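Hello,

I think I submitted the adenosine-5'-diphosphate job twice by accident. Can you confirm which output corresponds to this input? Input:
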Amino acid sequence: MKRSTIWILTVVMAIALLGLLAMQIVYLEKMVAMRNNQFYENVKRSLNSVSTLLEQNETKYFLDQDLTEAEQMYSGIRKNSFGFGEGNDSNIDTTLKTLNPADLRPANRNKLKALNDSYQDKQEILRGQFLYQKSMLYEVILNILNHSSDRPIQERADSTTVSSYLRSELDFNGLSLPFEFAIVNKTSGVVYKTSGYSPMSQQDVYTQLLFPNDPKSKQNTLCVTFPTKSDYIFSSVKFLVPSLAFTFLLLGVFLYTISVAFKQKKLSEIKNDFINNMTHEFKTPISSISIAAQMLNDDSVRKSPEMLKHVSGVINDETKRLRFQVEKVLQLSLFDRKNATMRLEEEDANASIYNVINTFKLKVEKYGGHINANLDAEDPIINVDRMHFTNVIFNLLDNAVKYRREDVAPELTVTTVNPDEDHIQITVEDNGIGMKREDLRKIFEKFYRVSTGNRHDVKGFGLGLAYVHKMIDLFGGTIRAESEVNRGSKFIITLPLYK
Ligand code: ADP
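Support: Only one job matched these inputs. Its output is below.
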């Protein structure tokens, strides 16, 4: 896949996912707002009903009071003025019921007249009673209008009643969550409140004017809060949470996939580079050897022993170079095999390093430089594979020469010390081109080569340090690098001593 295709896919997927996420968030917000509105409406309806119930309660109170008074008065009046007993009432009824037109003979006229009189009396009484009831009702209404606000609000709306009304009305409107409330007077402030009533902000308080006919200055308000309101609202929209979670999961997977795609892309580019480098590295010695072979075919060359020596020397050197390159490529296969073939044995680190330095001396001196050895570690016996250990030191020295500064003679220093009684520390230091901090972090990665290095005429596979790192790891040690651009680099290996 082309890099641009990956980018286009990334952008399209990112837009789609972010759009999905944004829409879900908007939907969630809308749902919460709607739930809040619904909640508000239901609470308002409940509070309104509570207020009506309290007013009805008050009316009943005044009715009861006035009725008791009237009852006493009325029973007195009935006995004294009208002279009608309950027995009389029933007499009229039975008389009227049994009255037949056939009975209306002159002989009965007196009886009927008496009856009519008593019937009119009865009507008078009923009328009187009605007028009385009416006036009493007026009185009750007047009482309510004039005196109800004189009663203390604690009596008119006592906390138990308000609480039970609130509970039943809220339940009726489908709000079965706990509440706290207070009664607040317009002039004197909070009249009473429940223990948990402590609103965080005025927005959390739902209010309802109680007894709206009271004079303005005496008006009371019922204030209600719901401490668990946000949980209640959330619980009704929480079914949306999994969908959000899935979107985030999708986003995570998407980011991971993209990062893998880019990594793969980079790896394939690196592999291409690697193959290019390798071809180059092989081509040079091969062409040298091929030229040498052609020269050997030449009679004049064959006849001159000096020329012959020179050509055979070239073939020898180039074959060595080729073998070294092949060795490096073979090292690559080590990374993919889990258990690289290792023959661990006791090895004198100082002696081993000394040998490598000896073979390297000539190469450094060829560039006018020196290699110094301060091999001061005591009892430097380590448990390593000899061949691989030698390769490690060789690779580090090879890099130190490869990445030397053009204008400065290479100065290499190899040091061994004992940082403690169980370890040996091997340091390979040079005065070469050095590396930037961000490169330093990556040089031990497979195929990594410092791309901006100004010595990129120096061909390599980016495998040397990865190999070194892997080997040191297998020997149970650690390696780190310190470097400064145009000053030099320092590779520090710590290995456990063989006991
Ligand atoms: P190669 O040398 O084949 O490129 P290495 O794994 O040996 O691969 O090194 C990785 C990179 O680290 C090199 O490309 C080089 O830029 C940098 N590097 C390694 N050793 C040194 C050194 N002594 N001084 C400066 N840069 C170095």
